[in-house]
Write a structure and sequence with these properties.
Mean pLDDT: 93
Oligomer: single chain
Strand content: 15-25%
Distance between the termini: 11 Å
Helix content: 25-40%
Number of strands: 6
Largest sheet: 6 strands, parallel
Radius of gyration: 16 Å
Low-confidence stretches: 178-182
Shape: globular
């Protein structure tokens, strides 16, 4: 089996102050072939080194975007990273095939319970519907999108629930399949 390399882009505005994101990040930090990049620590001024980030993307088979769900989207820090890194000629458009065949894995958490993400729920839409813009981004960039890993009700998650979710995350990254971009 080919050695798979996984790049985890952690996009939490304050990872050290986060109970869930910090726990998830710590749970995968020792996995072989996994590179973790904390955007808030790397780019506190939001001036992303696009060439460096593109090099990391090229060197990895799976790209994980780990972020808390903010206002029905990704946090501003991740959006800024996407705007600066996923450029025409690199990620899409003429000559923009650097990500083709790589795998995209979304790992996110919500404040509300899963029941609030349904047509009859508080948010009126399912997570699958709300994640469509990221699915469209994956398609544009030629990425194969994996089933998202979502922790609903993160604020109220018990230590046992958080540990179980972290194990699922770790197992998911440990079992990353080969991609056509390898």
């Amino acid at each position: 089996m080919t050695n798979q390399r996984t790049l985890v882009i952690v996009a939490h505005p304050d990872l050290s102050g986060s109970r869930v994101a910090a726990h998830l990040t710590a749970s995968i930090g020792d996995l072989d072939g996994v590179t973790v990049r904390d955007l808030a620590a790397l780019y506190p001024d939001r001036r992303v080194d696009a060439e460096l980030e593109q090099r990391y993307l090229r060197e990895h088979d799976t790209i994980v975007l780990q972020f808390p769900w903010h206002w029905y989207s990704v946090p501003g820090l991740l959006k800024e990273w996407m705007d600066q890194v996923l450029t025409r000629g690199f990620a899409y458009g003429a000559g923009g095939d650097a990500l083709h065949g790589k795998r995209l894995q979304l790992v996110t958490s919500t404040g509300g319970p899963e029941s609030s993400y349904s047509p009859a729920g508080h948010n009126r839409f399912t997570m699958a519907e709300l994640l469509r813009p990221l699915e469209a981004t994956a398609h544009l960039c030629g990425l194969d999108m994996a089933e998202p890993l979502v922790l609903h009700g993160a604020h109220g998650a018990t230590p046992e629930e958080l540990a179980a979710h972290s194990r699922r995350y770790r197992d998911l990254l440990s079992a990353v399949p080969a991609t056509s971009g390898s």
